[in-house]
Amino acid sequence: MRETEIHEVESAKALMTEAMTWSVMKWLREKKRVRTTADQANAVLDDLSQKVRGLWPLSLRDQYERLRSESANCKAGPIGKHSSPNGTVSAQVLSDALALKDADDSAHRARLDAEATFDEAEKRLSTALAREGCRKAIRAWELHEQAIRKSQQFIFSK
Fold it and tell me: What is the rounded average pLDDT for all residues in the chain?
C-alpha cells in the first residue's frame, strides 16, 4: 500500500479513536466529518483493492469475478469454469480465488455492520452505539487492509 493511501486510512482510524470519547453533542456536531472521513478511507481502500486485482493473473481474475458474479446472482452453477482452452481452472486457482473472495467478503460484511451501527446510534442518539460503530469501522478497515495484503501476494504470480 502506498503511504498516501495508508495516511487516509490511518487518519480515519485516529478520528474514530478520538470519537470514542465524544459526548452526544460533540457527535451531533461532528457526525458529518466522521462520515466524510470514513467514506474517504473506504474509497481509498476500494480503489487500491481494485488496482491490485487488476494485476492478478488472468485465470485468477476470471475465477474471482465469476465467484463474485455467482454470489451476487445467488446462482449455484458449477464452479471451476473459465475461459481457458479446456474450460476449467486448476484447483489451486479456485482455492486462491475462494480465499481472496472470503477475505473481501469478511471486510465488506464488517463495513456494512459498522455503517448499520452508526445509523442506529444516530437514530437513538446513543454514544455507546456510536463508540461501538467506531470500533467496528476500525476493524472493517483492518480487515480490508488484510484482504489487500493477501491480494498483493498474487500480483504477477503464475
Answer: 88
CA distance 9 to 15: 10
Exposure string of 76-91, with b = 16+ CB inside 10 Å and e = fewer, is eeeeeebeeeeeebee
The DSSP annotation for 40-80 comes to HHHHHHHHHHHHHHTTS-HHHHHHHHHHHHHHHHT--PPTT
- Alpha-carbon span 61 to 67, nearest angstrom: 10
Phi, psi of 70 (to 5 degrees): -60, -40
pTM of the model: 0.85
The angle that helices 24-53 and 91-124 make with each other, rounded to 10 degrees, is 160
**pLDDT value, residue 104:** 97
